[in-house]
Amino acid sequence: MAFNERRKAQRVEADLAVTIRGGPGETKGRALNISTSGIYFESPYYVAPLTKIRLEFLIPDPRKGESPVTCDGVVVRVEPEKKDPAIALYRVAILFTLVSESSLKILDAYIRSKVSS
What we know:
By secondary structure, this protein is mainly β. It contains one helix and seven strands, in the order βββββββα.
């Protein structure tokens, strides 16, 4: 059986520090990959699916140094699927629900630069 890709936006690997607000409160995480429609990151805390969160991160910009991005999203997947005190890091997939036009432009430029390099 062939796998059909459902993503509509180009996704690129990323190594970005992310601040997450919502769910267990405020925490820091690390992005693994990103697109203009979502982000996949590691978190030290379990965040339940369908939790609404706000993310803040800095995108490297060769001209400006770093550009701040803030967006709202909803958790669509967590690995492992259940909270476990023995787990040090959870992998969390977020679908963006609100991204400002300026943040979207920053994300798009970053993704294009990663794809073309």
